[in-house]
Amino acid sequence: MVLQTRPITDAEFDRFVMLPENRDRNFEFIAGEIVEVVSNRKSSYEALKIMGRVSVHVDDNHLGRYTGADGGYIVSGEKYIPDGAFTSYARQLVAPDVPYNPVAPDLAIEVLSPGNTEIEMTRKIGNYLAAGTVVWAADYVTKTIDVYTPGQPRKTLRVGDFLEGGDVLPGFRLAVANVFSD
User: For residues 97 and 161, what is the distance between their CA atoms, to the nearest angstrom?
Assistant: First the structure.
């Protein structure tokens, strides 16, 4: 949901999100617009199922840090809050204590919600890829996960396929069916 009609500056965005009435809300800064991040039970559930497995894999293998749906990142000059993300120790040894991490994650997980627009998601995925981030975009309606890897064509996974970590999460493997099972 876009909250204003004219493009604003990064500084105006920062002032807006720090207002007391906004402290319990999440916002992204996309194409000069403030976009409130609104989820629903279903998309939150699917994101948590993926991130639960990712977090265990990352911890067991001492690979880096991860965030859930409150972790913000600066990606190609915009500010995003993916449903989940992973940043390797190689990419960022010390995590900063700021609302939006200035280092783009190695992996961003986006679970489509009814409020997401195609234009918004295309822009975000393009910016993630430009920053070197792998994106897993899950759609619980179609029960698919699109895997975007910089320099490679999109790969669409369906029930019966396996989501694999590749170079970002070596050894990670999750059945797509497990993500979309109730």
Answer: 37
Q: Bridge-partner residues for 145, per DSSP?
A: 138, 157
Q: Which amino acid is at 29?
A: F
| Helix, strand, coil in percent for the chain, rounding step 5 | 25, 30, 45
Q: What is the DSSP string of 83-116?
A: SEEEEETTT-SS---SSEESSPPSEEEEE--TT-
Q: What ranges do the domains of the chain cover? A: 39-179
Side-chain half-sphere exposure of 102, counting CA atoms within 13 A: 5
Structure tokens that stand for 145 in this block: 């996960």
SS3 140: coil
Residues 6+ apart with CB under 8 A from 18: none
Q: What number of other Cβ atoms are within 10 A of residue 75's Cβ?
A: 27
Q: Name the token pair of 94.
A: 């010390």
Architecture of domain 39-179: Alpha-Beta Complex (3.90)
The alpha helices in the chain, defined as continuous H runs, are 10-17, 41-61, 118-130, 176-179
- pTM of the predicted protein model: 0.89
- What are the tens digits of pLDDT across the range 25-50? 888 898 888 888 877 778 888 999 99
Summarised one tens digit per residue, pLDDT across range 49-60 is 999 999 999 999
